[in-house]
Amino acid sequence: MLKILAATPGINIGDIIYQLATFLMLLSIPIALIILYRIFKRRNKRMDRIEEKLDQLLAEKDQQN
């Protein structure tokens, strides 16, 4: 029976591994882009808050002088 299974043409384990690896690579590109977009979006919000605080501090300093 083992000889029959080994001789049967069909999908090899190597083909399955290759297809899964290729699929995961293709899937990882959009996921990586989404993650990068979220990181930069969060960083921009942080920078906006820092700039706003700096503007307030500069305005207070100008009022004191």
What does this structure look like?
By secondary structure, this protein is an all-alpha fold. The protein is built from 2 helices and no strands. The protein has helices at 2-7, 13-64. It is rod-shaped.
Task: Tag the structure with descriptive keywords.
single chain, mainly alpha
Secondary-structure map:
Layout: H1 2-7, H2 13-64
Q: Quick one: overall form? A: rod-shaped
The radius of gyration over CA amounts to 29 Å
Q: What structural class do helix, strand and pairing data support? A: mainly alpha
Oligomer: single chain
| Distance between the first and last residues' Cα | 95 Å
Segments where pLDDT lies below 50 for 5+ residues? none
Sketch the topology as an H/E string, one letter per element.
HH
The number of strands is 0
The tally of helices reads 2
On the 0 to 100 scale, the average pLDDT is 84
Q: Could you provide a short overview of the structure?
A:
With 65 residues, this protein is an all-alpha fold.
